[in-house]
Amino acid sequence: MTPLLEVRGIDKSFGPVKVLHNVELSAYPGEVTALVGDNGAGKSTLVKCIGGIYPIDSGQLLFDGKEVHVHSPRDAGELGIEIVYQDLALCDNLDIVQNMFLGRERKNGVFLDEDSMEELAEKTLSGLSVRTVKSIRQQVSSLSGGQRQTVAIAKAVLWNSKVVILDEPTAALGVAQTAQVLELVRRLADTGLAVVLISHNMNDVFAVSDRIAALYLGRMAAQVKTADVTHAQVVELITSGRSGELGLKNGVTP
Ligand SMILES: Nc1ncnc2c1ncn2[C@@H]1O[C@H](COP(=O)(O)OP(=O)(O)OP(=O)(O)O)[C@@H](O)[C@H]1O
Ligand SMILES: [Mg+2]
Hints:
Blueprint: E1 5-14, E2 17-27, E3 32-36, H1 43-50, E4 58-63, E5 66-68, H2 73-79, E6 81-85, H3 96-100, E7 107-108, E8 111-112, H4 114-127, H5 145-158, E9 163-167, H6 175-190, E10 194-198, H7 202-208, E11 211-216, E12 219-225, H8 231-240, E13 242-243, E14 246-247
Parallel strand pairs: 3-10, 3-11, 6-9, 9-10
Antiparallel strand pairs: 1-2, 1-4, 4-5, 7-8, 11-12, 13-14
Helix pairs in contact: 4-5, 5-6
Bound molecules: adenosine-5'-triphosphate (ATP) and magnesium ion.
Magnesium ion binds near residues 43 and 44.
Protein name: D-xylose transport system ATP-binding protein
InterPro entries: AAA+_ATPase (IPR003593), ABC_carbohydrate_import_ATPase (IPR050107), ABC_transporter-like_ATP-bd (IPR003439), P-loop_NTPase (IPR027417)
GO molecular function: ATP binding; ATP hydrolysis activity
C-alpha cells in the first residue's frame, strides 16, 4: 500500500538548534497513525513542516507517492492536507458556519450564499453524526472544547481533505468529550482518509490507532503497527528511544 502522506529524511533546525533529524513518517489511507513522543520531541514542529508553516532544511515530502513542495498552509490545503491545531483552529467571534467557510465563502452574485453554506455545514456535521451542537449559528466562543474540536474536524471533512492531522485534539478535554472526538477520528479514517493523531495519552493511542510513530529527541525511533506492541513498549520508545529490538541503536541510528 502506498502511503498517502510520506515524509522522507526531513531535517529542521531553528538557528543552531537541530530539532528534527532525518525524520521519516508514513500515513496510510483508511488508517489512524498516532504520532507520539515526549514534550519537545519535535511532533508539532514536524506537523508544521508538513503544513507549510516552517520551511524544511532538507528531505522530501511525498503525497500519494509523488514528491510535492509545500511552502505555505495554502499549498497544503490545495493538496488536501488539513491540520487541526488545538488553539488556532477556530475564530471565537464567528459562528460555526462562518468558521467552516472562513476564507472560502460561497457567493451568490455579490452576496454571501448563507443558505447553501448553512445547508452544507449542517449536512457535514450530521454526516459525522455530530448531534451535541445546538445550532450551527452559535458563536464558537460558546462551545465546549470537545465541540470546538468537532467543528474543526468537520471543517476538514467539508473541504474534502485527504490527510487530516490533529495536534493533541483531546489534551484539554474531559472523559466523555475525549471519547466523542476519538470516535470521530476513527470515523474519519473509516471513510478513507489518512489521519495523523498526536497524543500523549496511551489509552487514546491504543483505542484508535492502527500504527504508532514514536519520535525521540527529534528522531523517529520506530514506526510500528499498534497490534504488534504493548503500552509498555511504546512508553519505553517515548522515554528512551528504544525497546528491546525496536527503536534507535546507540541512542541515534534507527
Ligand atoms: N519556533 C521555534 N524556535 C526555536 N525552537 C523551537 C521552535 N519551535 C520549537 N522549538 C524547539 O523544538 C523542540 C521541539 O518542539 P515541538 O514543539 O516540536 O515539540 P513537541 O513534540 O510538539 O512537544 P509537546 O509534546 O510539548 O507539544 C523543542 O526543544 C522546542 O523548544
Ligand atoms: Mg507539540
